Amino acid sequence: MTADTVASLAFQPAQRVRAIGVSEILRITDNANALKRAGRPVIVLGAGEPDFDTPQNVREAAVRAIGRGDTRYTVLDGSPAMKAAVQLKFKRDNALDFALDEISVSAGAKQVIFNALMASLNPGDEVILPAPYWTSYADIVQICGGVPVPVACTGENGFRLDAAQLEAAITPRTRWLFINSPSNPTGAAYSAAQLKPLCEVLLRHPQVWVLADDIYEHILYDGLAFATPVAVEPRLREHTLTINGVSKAYAMTGWRVGYGAGPRALIAAMAVVQSQTTSCPSSISQAAAIEALTGPQDVVAERCADFQARRDFVVAALNRAPGLHCRVPEGAFYTFASCAGVLGKRTRGGALLQTDSDFCRYLLQDFEVAVVPGSVFGLAPYFRISYATSMAQLEEACARIIAACAALE
Prior knowledge:
By secondary structure, the protein is of the alpha/beta class. It is built from 15 helices and twelve strands. The protein has helices at about 5-10, 15-20, 25-35, 55-70, 80-95, 110-120, 135-145, 165-170, 190-205, 230, 265-275, 285-295, 300-320, 355-365, 390-405; strands spanning about 45, 105, 125-130, 145-150, 175-180, 210-215, 240-245, 260, 335-340, 370, 370-375, 380-385. It is globular and about 60 Å long. The termini are far apart.
């Protein structure tokens, strides 16, 4: 067998994934953790995962489900009890009424997004992504045959999309608009008054559907009221998929339960996709999620207060660092700070910092703090910090960041 023959038989990835890699956030986190395993005192502020334990009552519900033998397949897109819990949550928290066949439950909110796009996008359909955006959005759009259309939303406008930008971005090929509030990576949130002009644009373009990613709904600060598009403008109901999950509010990232609610036809098409991928979510995880959604909710507010204290500390610390500027996020557990003021400077080793990626690499290599460059999220020059970790870790990390900025020449 010739070398050319061997080469021709080598694995070739499908076109749909050739330009897509593993999540850059996970790659950065893995690299930082490898340094930690090698003995370096790296502080990792990359992953969006609460450091709290899953609440005790939720864990106990899972144990009871195992004891009952609830370990078999459930209904494809969520057990009736799980869908009833989601139904209750939407009515209690958002004053939205959904029938059980308007609800889909999957192995995480990411799968709900994938199912929706796989079920609805045709090749070349466009999806508007207010940037900065969670990195997986664009990759999922591409895998499903669509075209991501980033729209830059700057810090001057609170990293929020405005009506004029939305109007300008819509074309005859536009199929979806993503709204993530509070946002990953910026923590920016839309009030009802800020969503209303966007809804008015969407009413003029009924071919455009809305994907409302509300996963950080319960991590909102300073007494701000949560708003979601369908609650603000009920006429969008037949063109909106509202997505949420238990990962962030209830510290259940590893349980892998997300859910969405929307028009029956879309939910049914999503079930077709799920039937040929994962089938039902874990029965034990569903039992735990039912308890999370229907049990005592006090822990959610308590943990939100802890996150707010961390936010206040990190924002103040970053704004003391020479060359950095950080706005105060309204929710989630991220800061998205500008590092424009340090670009063009040199490290003590003589390296020139030209991009936000250069700055983040410098923080990791020289000061052992892992953060994520804003360019990964579609907007530079910024960097994201996840403050879903202990205050002691945040204090040390921020001290290192301040020292790193002060050391630049």
